[in-house]
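Notes for week 9. Today we move from apo structures to complexes. The key idea is that a small molecule is not decoration. When we ask for a structure prediction with flavin mononucleotide present, the ligand SMILES becomes part of the input, just like the chain. The input block below holds both the sequence and the ligand string. Read it once before you look at the output, and try to guess where the molecule might sit.
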Amino acid sequence: MVAKTEHIRLDPPLAWVAEDSQSGIVVGLGKDSLLLKPHSVPRTASPDNINLTVYLTSERAFRFSGRLHTEADPWLVNLAEDQWPQLHELLGQLRKDQHIELCRQQDVEASDRFTGFEQLSLRPETLPLVDPSELDTQVAFLGRTFAAPMLITGMTGGISKGVEINRRLAVAAQAFGIPMGVGSQRVALENEQYAAIFRVKHYAPKVFLIGNIGMAQLLSSKALDQCQRAVDMIEADALAIHFNLVQEFIQVEGDRHFKGALEQLELICRKLSVPVIAKEVGCGMDARSVQRLIECGVSAVDIGGAGGTSWALIEGLRSQSSLVQGLGQTFRNWGIPTAYSLHHVHKALPHFPVIATGGMRDGLMVAKAVALGARFAGIGLPLLRAALESESGPQEVLQSFLKGLQLAMLASGARCLDDLADRIELGRPLEQEFLQAFAQVKR
Ligand SMILES: Cc1cc2nc3c(=O)[nH]c(=O)nc-3n(C[C@H](O)[C@H](O)[C@H](O)COP(=O)(O)O)c2cc1C
């Protein structure tokens, strides 16, 4: 029977060679099938069996055998169940590079770019109450003190560019005295040869490093062991576990079984050698979810709100199927805007450390996030793009964020981060007072 699975688009395609020396390109991969374009004249007999080798790189090849359907265009190869794990491995290795390329080349953010910070302002201070030399941007988190309330959020570097991207980010994090997260370490847990991508402490021994795995990995019976391996692999100071339900559902090869994840999370929080951070990736968290995570034992949350990078959109863009692409578009702006999520969680749980990631694009936004109670603003896409651009790119981005934060503090008369909370207002400065006053006059 011809498989009905959706396929991801391979651009650039991979090369394949069959046992009978036919060859061509792989244009799509599904959960249980391949889409092939042959270089030469099509076969006549169909369906047929085919044994072929797919080349990820000149050194890395995957062998498959399956039922070939040449009446389909492109050709479809249905793989038997025993072949799925290696197909999954191939998909896993390609996925990260595809994410990077899409993030580099395309508009992958929420179409409205709405984080909620647009609706807030800091009240300006006319008098020079604070001298620039007195500004204190230091912040305490998980027993350590950091130079600024900014954090390089966990992002996959991909297989081909991962080492370089992570090195550039780590050097920048160390230079600015801020924490850094790495992207999902799953690929290295499955294949030790990729561990080097994540080991950045050679370049930045002092950096506070946050490891990363996904909620889907919590379901394995070896979840605790895997988490500890992820931590030990990179000498992590904390471990982030990302919750990305929307992404997994839209992703062609995503995990769709999450039951039992919270019970495992509890065990991991109890036994792991470092603190655990629960992390959303763009849909935001509400206080009820955070309360449940606290009961499981997490030490902090990254509320990862909407308004920035959209994983629904990215997974839609990876797919060949109009159905999946449509789902990605429909959910492009899905989620709680970052500022709303942050405010909601901080109001309910004022002492719990919250990281605000999702669409943080300048230092003024960082200042507003801190004013709303964030311990850190997490920065993703701008730093990834800068790391792809040049060695010093991430440091230039962080420098502009820091300058923006310092100016926001100075211009609103805040000497330290705690001072910002009193200066945040809804709307434009003094707008609420103005509206109320005029509403009374009219009555
Ligand atoms: C290329 C890229 C790869 C990412 N990979 C991961 C990942 O592996 N694990 C994770 O928890 N979050 C990952 N994220 C999500 C980010 O940590 C962050 O939540 C998201 O990008 C929102 O922030 P932004 O709007 O500043 O980009 C990734 C983001 C980008 C841009």
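The chain has two domains: 8-96, 110-432.
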